[in-house]
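sorry for the late reply, my laptop died twice this morning and i had to redo everyting from scratch. anyway the thing you sent over, i finally got around to it. pasting the sequence first so we're on the same page, its 507 residues, then the predicted structure underneath. double check i copied it right bc i was rushing
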Amino acid sequence: MENSLLLTYLLLVPVAGSIILLFFKAEDERIIKYFGLFVSTVVFLLSIYIYFNFDSENSSFQFIHQFKWIETLNIHYKVGIDGMSILLVVLTTFLTPLTLISSWSSVKKKVKEFTFFMLFLEVGMLGVFVSLDLFLFYIFWEAMLIPMYFIIGIWGGERRIYAAVKFFIYTMAGSLLMLVAIIWLAIHASSYLGGFTTDLEQLYKVAPLFDQSTQNYLFLAFGISFAIKVPLFPFHTWLPDAHVEAPTAGSVILAGVLLKMGTYGFLRYNLPLFPAASTHFASFISILAIIGIIYGALVAMVQTDMKKLVAYSSVAHLGFVILGIFALTQESVQGAIIQMINHGLSTGALFLLVGFIYERTHTREISYYGGIAKIVPVYSFFLMLVSLSSVGLPGLNGFVGEFLILLGSFKSSVLNSWWYTGFAATGVILAAVYLLWMYKRVVFGKVVNPKVEELTDLNKREISILVPIIIFIVWIGVYPSTFLHVSDKTTTKIIQQVQNPPKAELK
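ok and here's the structure:
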């Protein structure tokens, strides 16, 4: 029997943990680190329990818990999950404890505050994925900005303040558009529902009835907010700065989870609420996605900084996800969802590996390295495996997502042209170019820099962080059905909501 309070517990545990943390003495750094890890591990185990009790044959929202929050406006606290959000919830709870372990030696100042913000950030991310009320969703969407701003601004690199402010202003600007759209949507729907409501399931029944121009405006208001978060070309300029200046833990969470909020938003809100507008804008957004795929790859190729290279690779990889979403076929949307998970694992691991070597040398310049294969063989092996998974080598996770997206977009009746698939496929080749070229320059060749010979290989703590990620990279690559099956019914439902909306127009 499903326990409707489980998702609320999932949110309350890190909230309680972060509040308790404030009562610790700042000097007790070791205890603080272990406590933060303990709390995030409890959240992960709770999410695993939810995952195993989730019914993947049911396309409806599950584990729903709701009560009236602001009665006068009919706003509810309402949480629930489906086959798409459960995967993202588990990804979030899986990466959070790993990032806390990764910062064990790299974060030396204000450890208590850092752990507090990481747990606070986890609450915001989980809240975004489980909210079934638009007002509640907006609260979590904005709340998540605050800890990320401080994580970049306090523990980041030399230009951390610039990067943090840019990240905050970009996301805030998009969020205000979404807030206006939520109010407009709820008021417009009230004439049909008999009252103001921000309940997502109620709005699913009504919003598709709006006329084309209303849908278009609302789609764009929501869409720009999500496009900034993805980030979709040309809204991507905040990303390289935020990634490069963020500490390793911040970069992993930023790439692994935060960027997925944009793609999740398109799937959860834009497609089902505004189906006519979704098909209307599908070609235009797909073109932007393909520009992002090629542009991100070309810019990554000329980077001299390893972290910036990985950051631009995210623009390319998320372009694939957007293309998959707007191709609107079963294969492409399934591919988009699994690619969201793949990107979180592969790019998260790449940022960890860059962070590990940066801790030893305090530089990310590719030219500093060369010939480290014999000096740090374990590091070189992990970097090779993760790079290949990011390239999309068959047998590893990246291939599954990219193959399904390209297959689905080729079959798409909405895009109705093989040109989209043809241009997008060049991104796979370019990914191999910039990642393998980076790997060759860092790992192979002669040791040009004598300082590199003093490098130490990965320690047990660092290996213990990477091994769980590698297990999932191989698992998804070899047997993706485990995870595709979970989101299958949800994907079918989303596509049906777009292709077969109610026909009568709302006057």
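Residues 6-499 form one domain.
thats about all i looked at so far, will dig more tmrw
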